[in-house]
Design brief:
CATH superfamily of the largest domain in chain B: Aldehyde oxidase/xanthine dehydrogenase, molybdopterin binding domain
Number of strands of chain B: 29
CATH class of the largest domain in chain B: Alpha Beta
Number of strands of chain A: 21
Oligomer: heterodimer
Number of helices of chain B: 19
Distance between the termini of chain B: 59 Å
Strand content of chain A: 15-25%
Helix content of chain B: 25-40%
Distance between the termini of chain A: 51 Å
Largest interface: A-B, 83 and 85 residues
Shape of chain B: globular
Radius of gyration of chain A: 23 Å
Structural class of chain A: alpha+beta
CATH topology of the largest domain in chain B: Aldehyde Oxidoreductase, domain 4
Radius of gyration of chain B: 27 Å
Largest sheet of chain A: 5 strands, mixed
Strand order of the largest sheet of chain A: 1-7-8-10-9
Chain lengths: 479, 765
């Protein structure tokens, strides 16, 4: 059963829109159509957090609150969710939410333009956690830029929430919200608006059919790239397939050999899971993007975008990950190595989609990953490096070295790996391995770094990796 | 000291409750009249070219387009230059990548922006000049530079025991106000216009638009309630958007809103001046600077804009907090094919200070001494060494006291030892520590701008007070502070006072909210208006109630004359019934200041704001990554009107200054195209860039001058506290070779710049 009507909850009422414009952002919708102007546009590319809203989603009869950037999310993706805006935090009698009060009390607003976004990011934190440790606070607002305060009062305001009751207006209305969310439980959505089409399939079978019929459709997950076609390039996206509505692809499973991650699993869930197995992977994910971005973005999206600076890609490459690709009839399992053919080009053909990713569990390996950027959070790497090393009797038994930001695709350093394989970790070998990176890569100069710097840092990260292995400790400014 | 009940209170920002609930209206939030159109600006994709043909036919035909404007639609002056010409609204010859060429009004912002892409432009390309050094070589200037001199630096340098010579450069900075540039114009009867602009300067907006339209100033009314950040970026850079929006409104006879996309905003508007300097310095073994010569060149972009005043402020701050007995500076205002560099918090002062801070730092490193100590030996003193290089006697110097207190409270000496130990033990991670001072002159250096007006009404039926001034609320809390001052003057609680939106029809001829002077000037003007009303009341009470003295105490809602006490409310009603004026304008002009720009001598500033910071950083010598570990600040805010607001300015200013000198890097391609025009390519500090330990303390002081509440402004000065981060990073770099060599290190301190400097220093060892 499909529907052209999207239904979502706002202020405990079900709102329906028939065939909404699939290229309209939620930000424009709430400001222009709902007349709620508290949510601001700061950049229209998910980079400043001024447009942060919270979506409530039902998961196992519980509402999960997700802060997202409304400027790069399209209206139809509201289907089946609870929309919460900054104005909605004020209760009917005019009293403010504890977060709002705290920001006032701690002088957390100056010009005030970024403030609604901070309020919403902290609101999601307030709802999802029971105790607000410093790192949770910082992570929750790492995607919200403030040019006035220097952040200290906002951090203090967030800390003060530890001292107050968790019982808010939303908790009081929770049962009603849950029953409404159940009532509008997601159907498959097919929208036709003028010449624009939008599909939100419920399962893989539907996806396959749609892809067969509309092979030129763009697949939409987090939208950090796809949405910018509309908001920045000012082009239309005539046919969109929303992947994140497919629940059966939102999973992580593990057996003794590998971890398998479904295509629509949000990065933030994956990050929590992978921490235990590859702590460095989780660290890189934290810095991959803001909470708002990681709430909706997926590894499959990162792979399909195939950007040379996609941060998960060198990590997955060094871990010998596999990628499961499907189309109407077939399933293929490919190694990720070799999947990227050229700048932003992959082996994925029209009509195919990424189903899942398999990451081998390498129990004997040492896994390390490093990200270099101008800013610690929510910045694009100038160089991202990942190492997977298996040692036996002080010799390298197995080695994978992969880099992002060093070529037009994320790539393994084959020459470098050859030098390291079966070698001891002498200074001489490390130096040779460093030198060999010049054969593996010819990086470019761009806005983030020069060619020279990239090459030097790539070499130094290799050195750092083996230093850390030898010294059995981390040599990093952020630990 | 008088204790006031309504000032020195940590009161939240007057709009805080609205900020947090989304009900604070910015221009994009104003309810639009039916029929409102939406604008977009088409700009040059060449940095230097003659426009041979601007084919707009397909733009006109594009969906939703109602009108298109070009230079031929401008009836009056086609320029928005505030002081000098040079900033055409729509030029014939383009001089930078991003220069506006035409604009569109359409039925939605999206359609207007889409229509822009359909323009066909034929350019005749000319060679662009982007780099400061190239402009210097080719002698391309926006204005003639100047030389200033005190004493005989040449002679002093040649006689000095020690000598250093080098060059140093500083990067630009994008303002990145969170609310982008925006204007909203509603045509009125006759040919009048009501203009909402996100600007720091409504009066200039009014004047520029009147000139553009060939209309009288009294036909243009500009209103600003609040802006979502300015930092100097909306002092003159907002003008072109208000002007173009008005032009679209004039042509269509409809309301028009022009909201800039973030990328276009950054591409079109000017940024901080980046500087290049050559210097030579002579000094004795104690590190005292005996003579210094500096060549100071700034990238001004295509036009003078405010570059003259900004470079002048750089010259006025080339001393930082140091007595320079013999000094000369040659200043060059370079013309480049980049957007016109403009005002940015610090306004050249911070650049001037960085130049000399770097020199003093290098003097210390040359002598293998702790830079903090060498800074101290060069400080201005109280009774000698207290005349600046521009002839102003410093009467309020507290930098020596701040130094002693902060060195102690930050535990500087112990930490210096511990850091040395850490650096000896750690090969790859290194720590650095630095103390830097701030002494920043307060007043507009253009004398006539140091004036302000106000309008105060007291309403007879309930005694509530309405205040209008020329101050723009841009997050600095000026409305809150002015309301607190008035509340204090009238002895009324804060909720009785309303500071209303800033409008050119309420208070005319205002200066920009800039130069850190907004509350000093406008607060004083508002108090002046209140005093006039109080005078009316006193005369009335004396007449009617035969009290002996004019003097009255306004406190806790009561007005106490000698022998007769009224409630404020009843006195106001009484006065009204007896036909006494309860409304007044007010005025203030800063006393004492004078400056001769020809001789570069005088007293350009009423007072100085002081402060200092100690920063500790950690760097990774393999990658150049860096992290601020701890910051201690001691800052002089006089007797603050609202200490919480001042603390916010101090912390926010510090982080913005640290951002300028570390991760914030503005870049142009050689063809003049800006490559850093979005939050994905231009990084301002985020939450994890604030120091892990951040101790901000207030230096207890009173402003010696008669400034409102004896306070000192905290607008710009705290930005310069961020300098300590740069020099701490430099200190960490120097530790790589055990402090034996002076690092060659320029700002901004990106990981790449740090690694480059480390490589350089290792090679020299």
């Amino acid at each position: 059963m499909t529907s052209g009507t999207i239904r979502f909850i706002h202020k405990n009422k079900v709102l329906s829109i028939h065939n909404p414009d699939p290229n309209e952002t939620i930000l424009n919708f709430v400001r222009a159509k709902l007349g709620k102007t508290g949510t601001k546009e700061g950049c229209a590319e998910g980079g400043c957090g001024a447009c942060t809203i919270v979506l409530g989603e039902l998961k196992k009869s519980k509402i999960i609150y997700k802060a997202i950037n409304a400027c790069i999310a399209f209206v139809p993706t509201l289907a089946g969710k609870q929309l919460i805006l900054v104005e909605d935090l004020v209760s009917g009698d005019g009293s403010l939410h504890p977060i709002q009060k705290a920001i006032i009390d701690y002088h957390g607003s100056q010009c005030g333009f970024c403030t609604p976004g901070f309020v919403m990011s902290l609101f999601a934190m307030y709802k999802n956690y029971s105790f607000y440790k410093d790192d949770i606070i910082r992570d929750s607002i790492s995607g919200n830029l403030c040019r006035c305060t220097g952040y200290r009062p906002i951090i203090d305001a967030a800390k003060s929430l530890n001292k107050i009751s968790k019982f808010d207006f939303f908790k009081r209305n929770q049962q009603l919200s849950i029953s409404l969310l159940k009532k509008i439980k997601l159907k498959s959505i097919v929208i036709s608006n003028k010449n624009r089409k939008y599909f939100a399939p419920k399962n893989v079978n539907e996806l396959k059919k749609i892809l067969k019929q509309y092979p030129n459709s763009k697949l939409l997950s987090g939208g950090t790239d796809v949405s910018l076609v509309v908001t920045k390039e000012r082009k239309d996206l005539d046919s969109l397939i929303y992947m994140n509505s497919i629940d059966e692809l939102n999973y992580i499973k593990k057996n003794k050999n590998y971890i398998e991650v479904g295509a629509t699993t949000p990065l933030i869930d994956f990050e929590l899971f992978i921490k235990k197995y590859f702590p460095d992977f989780a660290q890189i994910l934290k810095r991959y993007g803001s909470t708002q971005i990681r709430n909706i973005c997926t590894i499959a999206g990162n792979i399909a975008t195939a950007s040379p600076i996609g941060d998960t890609l060198p990590l997955l490459l060094s871990l010998d990950s596999q990628i499961i690709i499907k189309d109407k009839d077939k399933t293929k399992i490919l190694p990720l190595n070799g999947f990227f053919i050229n700048y932003r080009k992959t082996k994925l053909k029209k009509g195919q989609f990424i189903h899942s990713i398999r990451i081998p569990l390498l129990l004997k390996s040492i896994f390390k990953a490093y990200k270099i950027s101008k800013r610690i959070d929510d910045d694009i790497s100038s160089v991202c490096a990942s190492f997977n090393v298996e040692l036996k009797n002080n010799k390298v038994k197995k080695i994978r070295v992969a880099y992002g930001g060093m070529a037009n695709i994320p790539k393994r350093a084959i020459y470098c790996e050859k030098i390291l394989l079966n070698s001891s970790l002498s200074d001489n070998i490390i130096n040779k391995a460093k030198k060999s990176l010049e054969k593996d890569f010819k990086p470019i100069t761009d806005v983030r770094a020069s060619q020279k710097y990239r090459m030097e840092v790539a070499k130094n990260l290799l050195e750092k990796c083996f230093l850390e292995i030898k010294q059995k400790k981390l040599i990093r400014i952020n630990t | 000291m008088k204790v006031d009940s309504f000032v020195m209170e940590n009161r939240p920002h007057e709009s805080a409750a609205k900020h947090v609930s989304g009900y604070a209206n910015y221009i994009d939030d104003i309810v639009e009249p039916e029929g409102t159109l939406y604008g977009a600006i088409g700009y040059s994709k060449k940095a230097h070219a003659i426009i041979k043909k601007l084919d707009l036919r397909d733009v006109w035909k594009s969906e939703g387009v109602v009108s298109v404007v070009t230079s031929s639609d401008i009836p009056g002056r086609n320029d928005i230059g505030a002081v000098y010409d040079g900033d055409p609204i729509f030029p014939k010859k383009v001089e930078y990548f991003g220069q506006p060429l035409f604009a569109v009004a359409a039925t939605s912002t999206e359609l207007a922006r889409k229509a822009l892409q359909k323009v066909k432009i034929t350019y005749k390309n000319l060679k662009p000049v982007i780099d400061i050094k190239e402009a210097l070589r080719k002698k391309l200037y926006v204005l003639k530079g100047r030389k200033i001199k005190r004493g005989d630096p040449l002679k002093k340098i040649s006689k000095a025991k020690n000598y250093l010579k080098n060059s140093f450069s500083l990067g630009s900075q994008e303002h990145f106000y969170l609310e982008g540039q925006i204007a909203f114009v509603i045509p009125q009867e006759d040919s009048d216009f009501k203009i909402f602009s996100s600007t720091q300067h409504p009066s200039e907006t009014q004047q520029i638009i009147a000139k553009m339209l060939n209309q009288k100033n009294n036909t243009i009314n500009v209103e600003v309630r609040r802006i979502g950040g300015g930092f100097g970026g909306k002092e003159t850079q907002s003008l072109i958007f208000a002007a173009i929006c008005t032009l679209l409104s004039k042509k269509t006879k409809l309301p028009v809103k022009l909201r800039m996309d973030r990328d276009d905003d950054i591409i079109i508007t000017g940024k901080r001046h980046d500087f290049y300097s050559d210097y030579e310095v002579g000094f004795n073994d104690k590190g005292v600077v005996e003579g210094v010569r500096i060549k100071l060149a700034s990238r001004c972009g295509i036009s003078p804009d405010l570059s003259e005043a900004i470079n002048s402020r750089a010259l006025l701050h080339i001393d930082s907090a140091y007595y320079l007995s013999d000094v000369s500076v040659e200043n060059y205002l370079c013309k480049t094919n980049t957007s016109s560099a403009t005002a940015f918090r610090g306004f050249g002062g911070n650049q001037g200070m960085m130049i000399i801070e770097n020199i003093v730092d290098n003097v210390a490193r040359y002598l293998k001494k702790d830079p903090a100590k060498i800074r101290k030996v060069n400080f201005y003193q109280k009774n000698k060494k207290n005349i600046t290089h521009y002839g102003m006697k410093i009467e309020d110097n507290v930098i020596n006291e701040i130094y002693s207190k902060l060195i102690k409270s930050s535990n500087y000496k112990n930490r210096r030892l511990n850091i040395k130990k850490f650096n000896l033990k750690n090969k790859y991670l290194k720590k650095g520590l630095s103390f830097t001072p701030v002494k920043f002159g307060i007043s507009f250096t253009t004398r006539h701008l140091n004036q302000a007006g106000a309008l105060v009404h007291i309403y007879c039926s309930d005694g509530s007070v309405h205040v209008s001034t020329g101050a723009i609320e841009m997050g600095q809390g000026t409305y809150t502070k002015i309301a607190m001052l008035i509340s204090n003057e009238l002895g009324l609680s804060f909720d009785k006072i309303k500071v209303f939106s800033t409008r050119t029809d309420k208070v005319p001829n205002t200066s920009a909210s800039a130069a850190s002077s907004t509350t000093d000037l406008n607060g004083a003007a508002a108090i002046n208006a209140v005093n006039k009303i109080k005078q009316n009341l006193a005369l009335f009470v004396k007449r009617k109630y035969k009290v002996k003295s004019n003097k009255a105490i306004y406190k806790n809602g009561m007005v106490k004359f000698k022998g007769k006490t009224f409630s404020f409310k009843s006195l106001i009603k009484d006065a009204y019934l007896n036909r006494v004026s309860l409304s007044s304008s007010g005025f203030y002009s800063t006393p004492k200041i004078h400056f001769d720009s020809k001789t570069f001598l005088g007293r350009p500033f009423l007072y100085f704001a002081y402060g200092a910071a100690v920063s500790e950083v950690l760097i990774d010598t393999l990658t150049g990554e860096n992290k601020i570990l701890r910051v201690d600040i001691l800052h002089d805010q006089g007797r603050a009107i609202n200490p919480a607001i001042e603390k916010g300015q101090i912390e926010g200013g510090f982080v913005q200054g640290a951002g300028w000198l570390t991760m914030e890097e503005v870049n142009w391609k050689s063809n003049g195209e800006l490559t850093t025009h979005s939050p994905s390519t231009y990084k301002i500090p985020a939450v994890n860039d604030t120091p892990e330990k951040f101790n901000v303390k207030i230096f207890k002081n009173l402003n010696k001058e008669n400034v409102v509440n004896k306070s000192k402004t905290t607008g710009e000065p705290p930005l310069m506290l961020g300098m300590s981060v740069f020099f701490a990073i430099k200190d960490a770099i120097a530790s790589v070779v055990n402090y034996k060599i002076i690092p060659n290190f320029n700002a901004p301190a990106t990981p790449e710049a740090i690694l480059l400097s480390i490589n350089d220093i290792k090679k020299k060892l």
